[in-house]
Amino acid sequence: MQDRHRYLFIRVLEACNADCFMCEFALSRDTYRFSPEDFAELLPEAVEKGVGYVRFTGGEPLMHRDVVELVRMGTEHGMRMSLITNGQFLPRFVDRLADAGLAQVIVSLDGSSAATHDVYRRSPGMFDNGLEGLRRAKELGIIPRVNSVVGPHNFAQMPELQRTLTELGVQQWELSAIKLDREIRYPSAEEVVAACEPIYTADPATTLVPLGKRFYGNTPEEQKAFFEESLPPRASEPLCLVTDDVIYLDGKNGRMFSCSCLPHKEGDEGPGGAPLRTDGKVMLDSPVFRTHADLFKQQGPTMCGGCSTTAAGYSDDLARMGAVPAWNY
Fold this sequence. Notes:
Elements: E1 6-11, H1 36-48, E2 51-57, H2 67-76, E3 80-85, H3 90-100, E4 102-108, H4 114-120, H5 126-139, E5 143-150, H6 158-168, E6 172-177, H7 189-201, H8 220-229, H9 242-245, E7 246-250, E8 255-257, E9 274-275, E10 277-278, E11 281-282, H10 287-303, H11 309-321
Parallel strand pairs: 1-2, 1-7, 2-3, 3-4, 4-5, 5-6
Antiparallel strand pairs: 7-8, 8-9, 10-11
């Protein structure tokens, strides 16, 4: 078993109450739910394979009627539990989640105020509920984090959002570029960099600074690819080291992926990743999964087109330092 703890992402449902314009799960009423029985079967294997962090994703995990029980089960097995939410229901759930042992909560916020964010998410009240949930989470000892999807529509709002999150006491922030199946054009590279570079160069002792790479790239080469080819920054060559530490489980389809950015990018050639079960038994590190992970470890830095800033930064930090602080993915 490796020294670093691994991350297990589980898409526990595909239903969602938000109507975000950039998301394939918008207003989904899909009935699938990853059950406590599913988790009970998976947990011993996860412990054996060195998983230390589990994050529930969706859809909207707080629409899952057993989400508190799922968090409690993971905590009882020694896992550090996390979930990502649009925040609408967080104020009514956060006390029970804290009691169950939730260690981190991630709220998706894309605008600097309700006047913008609620329009992007087409969900009135979502911004204010998200902030209230984050505030209460911090009081309860849960790590509060925000993930923001940045594009031409909202990049200029990020400095104001940074001030709001800093004042609120949010401890982590991810800014990742919006990914659409088309070319994305910004007013100009210079305008984006002028607006957002101060976000990344702020003093981390007094200001919340985003995790990972800049959403528009750290190097001239990455920035050229971003602004001219709509290619977000990815793990630097020669290897993507995320694939050693991450398992993303698509519960509904029983498929595993070696990065959280891969499941939504399947092609027409059939299901990607690897099956969760081998000969009917749950097996996280099956030979098929290792083949899949090794492919993206070797070729991800040159073939991936939808990397997140945290995934890219995580891989580069591992290559440079050999370790990454907890929750930096």
